[in-house]
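> call design_seq(struct)
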């Protein structure tokens, strides 16, 4: 029924939706939560969660464009940092604002928020690949690792009812801060030397990031598969009549 409704453009007959438990154990999570609640209580009523989600997408596209601009002007690096800050504001505050105002739309919010995250990652790394500060190969490798981990997170959310937002005390906010710090370093040290070999700083960071993300995917996938295997043991075959 739901599939037919979607195909005809009418409102789908949706199944009951269990809002997944959010697991955020990053270093800055307690401070960030208090800050976001404080901001949500002071947001003008004319601003809603959709506006903030839109800001998150536009600012991440802008950050990618700013990295591309940095190829010809260092102003682009400052604009990229500003874009990452605005992305944090929109992406982190949209859900908090909905919860504070009791205006949650769990299905819509979960779906749109993470479609925006995926598009934002493509835009950011696409800009980096054109910036001259990161090679297209490393950017593609990092994007592939990120999206692979996203797939695992979403599958686990549907299968286990738990939405994991951070791993090993690192979440989206910490990643934005690391990228921003790395961007500041680009002003003075765009390259680094490893074992006598000079390479771009963001290539080194991108390779390390891709390995970390893919390693996290393998660890998380093995852990969740084990949990599901134990929760759903293989049914015993019926006894054959003698």
């Amino acid at each position: 029924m739901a599939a037919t409704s979607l195909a005809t453009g009418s409102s789908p007959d949706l199944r009951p939706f269990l809002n997944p438990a959010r697991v955020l154990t990053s270093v800055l999570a307690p401070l960030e939560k208090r800050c976001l609640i404080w901001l949500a209580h002071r947001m003008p009523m004319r601003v809603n969660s959709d506006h903030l989600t839109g800001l998150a997408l536009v600012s991440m596209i802008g950050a990618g464009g700013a990295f591309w601009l940095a190829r010809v002007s260092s102003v682009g690096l400052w604009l990229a940092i500003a874009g990452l800050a605005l992305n944090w504001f929109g992406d982190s505050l949209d859900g908090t604002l909905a919860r504070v105002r009791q205006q949650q739309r769990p299905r819509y919010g979960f779906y749109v928020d993470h479609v925006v995250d995926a598009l934002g990652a493509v835009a950011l790394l696409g800009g980096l690949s054109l910036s001259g500060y990161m090679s297209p190969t490393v950017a593609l490798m990092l994007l592939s690792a990120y999206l692979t981990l996203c797939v695992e997170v979403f599958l686990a959310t549907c299968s286990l009812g738990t939405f994991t937002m951070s791993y090993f005390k690192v979440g989206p906010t910490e990643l934005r801060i690391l990228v921003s710090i790395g961007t500041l370093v680009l002003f003075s040290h765009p390259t680094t030397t490893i074992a006598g070999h000079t390479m771009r700083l963001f290539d080194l960071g991108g390779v390390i990031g891709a390995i970390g993300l893919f390693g996290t995917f393998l660890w998380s996938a093995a852990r969740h598969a084990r949990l599901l295997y134990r929760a759903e043991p293989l049914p015993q075959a019926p006894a054959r009549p003698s």
